[in-house]
């Protein structure tokens, strides 16, 4: 699972998508594309953004839900706990007096 997380976070466009979802959860693909275009000057097609979005979704960092003909995307930071448990918490424990 960690490999998928790192793959999802490796690309700058995917990190911006995750930032946007953390800032404003529950966005549709159209909303994500509009925010990337207006706010970050990322002019990728909806298909390209959809492909980018699929990578963090496969890693469990994004959850999607369908309501009618709309698909909403929400961030899920729970998979990052694995990274914290593996590298950050052990270091903090050693540093604590």
TrEMBL record:
<dbReference type="InterPro" id="IPR036388">
    <property type="entry name" value="WH-like_DNA-bd_sf"/>
</dbReference>
<dbReference type="InterPro" id="IPR001845">
    <property type="entry name" value="HTH_ArsR_DNA-bd_dom"/>
</dbReference>
<protein>
    <submittedName>
        <fullName>Transcriptional regulator</fullName>
    </submittedName>
</protein>
<keyword id="KW-0804">Transcription</keyword>
<dbReference type="InterPro" id="IPR011991">
    <property type="entry name" value="ArsR-like_HTH"/>
</dbReference>
<dbReference type="InterPro" id="IPR051081">
    <property type="entry name" value="HTH_MetalResp_TranReg"/>
</dbReference>
<dbReference type="InterPro" id="IPR036390">
    <property type="entry name" value="WH_DNA-bd_sf"/>
</dbReference>
<keyword id="KW-0805">Transcription regulation</keyword>
<dbReference type="GO" id="GO:0003700">
    <property type="term" value="F:DNA-binding transcription factor activity"/>
</dbReference>
<dbReference type="GO" id="GO:0003677">
    <property type="term" value="F:DNA binding"/>
</dbReference>
<keyword id="KW-0238">DNA-binding</keyword>
<dbReference type="Pfam" id="PF12840">
    <property type="entry name" value="HTH_20"/>
</dbReference>
<feature type="domain" description="HTH arsR-type">
    <location>
        <begin position="1"/>
        <end position="95"/>
    </location>
</feature>
